[in-house]
UniProtKB/TrEMBL annotation:
The lineage of its organism: Bacteria, Pseudomonadati, Pseudomonadota, Alphaproteobacteria, Sphingomonadales. Signal peptide: none annotated. Residues 5-200 form the CYTH domain. It comes from the Bacteria. This is CHAD domain-containing protein.
Amino acid sequence: MANVKQEVELKLELPSKAIEAFERSGLLPDEGARAELQAVYFDTPDRQLKAKGYTLRIRRSGNERIQTVKADDGQGGGGLFARAEWEMPVAQDEPVIDTRTPIAAALGEAADMIAPAFHVDVERRTWLIAEGQTEIELVLDIGMVSAGERQAPICEIELESKAGGPAALFSLARQIEALVPVRLGVAAKSERGYRLLADATSSFKAEPVSLKTGNRAEEAFQTIVRACVRHYRLNEGLLLDHYEPLALHQARVAVRRLRSALTLFKPMLAEADVSRFQAELRWLAKLLGEARDLDVLVDRTEPGELQDRIDAARRVAHAKVIDALESQRVCGMMIDIVEWLTLGAGKVAPDAERLRDEPAELFAARQLQRFHRWVVRHGRRMTKLDDERRHEVRKKAKKLRYASEFFAGLFIGTKKERRWHGRYIEALEVLQDDLGALNDLVSTAGLLSKHGLSGDPGAVKGGGSKKKLIAVAAGAHEELADAKPFWC
C-alpha cells in the first residue's frame, strides 16, 4: 500500500559559500546522516501531470527505490509547503500507476505516455533537532537539477515538523538566519526541473490566485499573501543571479500587490501589524521604484549625453537594489510575513475575528464595491483634476485591478462571468495605461531633477500632448464607470 501523509515543511535557500559556516555553526547536534540521492521525475510529453497539479518521482538511495506522488498545496508555494503525498517502495526505475495514488484517475489513458522528464541528484545531510515537545527534521540538500544539457544548482535547507506546530519551524529558521544568510524558498525541486524544460525567462508574472467558493475571508487572505510572496521571491532570485529590468519590474509589482492585499484586508488585521509590514514594504517599493523609473527613462530618451548620464544614474540605482536585496533586512522580510501569516496573522478584536470567519465572497464584494465607487467618483471630470489628483486616481485604480485579480476565482465560474470579468479588467488596464502615460509625461522634469540630471526634458520621448492624454484618460474612465461589475 502507498503511504499517504501530509507533508509540512519550510524551505530556506542557502548560498553555497555559506555551507561551511552553517556546518561549523554549533547549531547542528552531530555529523548527521549522509546519503546520495538520485531522483527521476516523470510526466507526459505535453506535461499533463504538471497541469493537473501533481508531481511523480522515483528516488533511489543505494539499492532502495521510493516512488512519491505529491499534490500541489494550492497556496502557490508561498513559503510554507503543506502537500499531500503518496509514498511506496518500487522495484525498478519505472513508475507504478495504479489505484494507490491519484495519477491513474487524473490522467486516464494518458498515463501510458508517462516518461522521464528530468533528474535531481543531491547529497543529503539529515539531522533531528529536538527541544522539549518539538522535533524537527533538518535536511541540507546540495546538488543539481538536470534536463538534457541544461542544469540548475540546488543548495537548500528543508525543515519538516515531526512533532510540534509550525511555530517551532520558524523558531529554528530564526536561529539559522542569525548564523548564515538564508532566504525563503518558494520553489520545489520539481518546479526547477520544469523550468529547465521551458525557454529561459527574464521575469515571472503574477500567477492566478487559487480562491474557491466556500473559502473564509481569512483563508482568502492567506492564499493571496502567499501568492504575492512567491511572485516577489521568484523575481528576486532572478535579480540576484543577474540584473534583469523586467525582473525588477515584476518584483516591484509583487510588492505593490502585497501592499494592496494588506490594505484590502486591513479591517480584519491588527493595525500595528499592518503598519509594521507596510513601512518595510514601502521602503522596499521606493527602492525598486527608483531603479524602475530610471530603467523606463533611459529607454524613453534619445541617444546622446543626457541618455548617457541617465544610464550612469541607473547603474548606481541598480547597485543600491542589489545591496539591499542582499541585506538581512530584506532577507528576513518575507520570512517575517510568512511566519506572521502561518501563526494566525496576530490577535485581533472580536469584530475583526468575525470578519475573518465570513464567506470570502461577501468580504470581497464589499471591498471591490468600495474601491470601484472611489475610482468612479474621484475620476469624474478628469479634465478638471490637477496632476496630483489624477495620480491618486491612478494609484487607486491599480489597487482595484489587483483586487479584481485576487478575487476573480470567487465570481467567475461560468463563461458569461468570465467575459464580464475580462471586460472589467480590460477597462481598468486601459485606464491605468492612459493615466500612466500621463504621469510619465508630467513627472519627467522632476525625475531628472531628483537625480541631478540637468538637460532638456524634450529629449525624452513622451506619449503625446498633455491635453490629448487627459482626454483619452477621461474616455477610459467613462468606459470603466459603464462596465458591469463582475462581483454583483
